[in-house]
Amino acid sequence: MASFKCFLVAFCMALSFSSINVSRAGRHLQQLPQLPPIPTLPTTTLPPMPTIPILPTTALPPLPSIPTMQALPRPGALPPLPNIPSLPTLPNVPPQPSMPSIPTIPTTIPSIPFLSPPPAPSTP
Q1: Distance between first and last Cα of the chain
Q2: How far is CA 42 from CA 45, 46, 69, 70, in A?
Q3: What is the DSSP string of 37-66?
Q4: DSSP 3-state helix, strand, coil percentages of the chain (rounded to 5)?
Q5: Nearest-angstrom CA–CA distance, 12 and 4
Q6: What angle do CA 29, 32, 33 make, to 5 degrees?
Q7: pLDDT tens, position by position, 34-54
Q8: H helical segments located in the chain
Q9: How does pLDDT run across 54-93, given as a tens digit for each residue?
Q10: DSSP code at position 108
C-alpha cells in the first residue's frame, strides 16, 4: 500500500512539473500587446443546386433460362474387394507355472514396550 502512495505522489509531482511550461506560456501570451482585430470576410451566396434530370426507363429483355445438365453416365459395379488372408494359428503353449503368492503385509502396528522410569527416591 505504501508503494501505491509513493507512486501517487510521484505522479502528482510529474503532472505539476509538466504544467509549469504551460503556465509560463499562458502568462507570456497575456503580456503581449493587443493584436489588431481580424477583419471579417464578405460572405457569398451559393448558387442553387442543379436539378437531377429524370432518365427514361427502357424495358429490359428477359434473362435467358439456365440450361439443364445432362445426367452423367454411371460406371459399372465396383470390383469386389480382395480377400484378406487369414492369420496362421498359434501353436498351443503349455501353461506357465503359477507365480508364488505375495506375503500379506500386516495392517496393525505392534506395540512397542516402554521401559518405566526407576522409582523416585523417597525424601525424609
Answers
A1: 68
A2: 10, 13, 73, 77
A3: PPPPPPP-PPPPPPPPPPPPP-PPPPPPPP
A4: 25, 0, 75
A5: 12
A6: 140
A7: 878 888 888 888 888 888 888
A8: 2-18, 20-31
A9: 888 888 888 888 888 887 777 776 778 888 888 888 788 7
A10: S
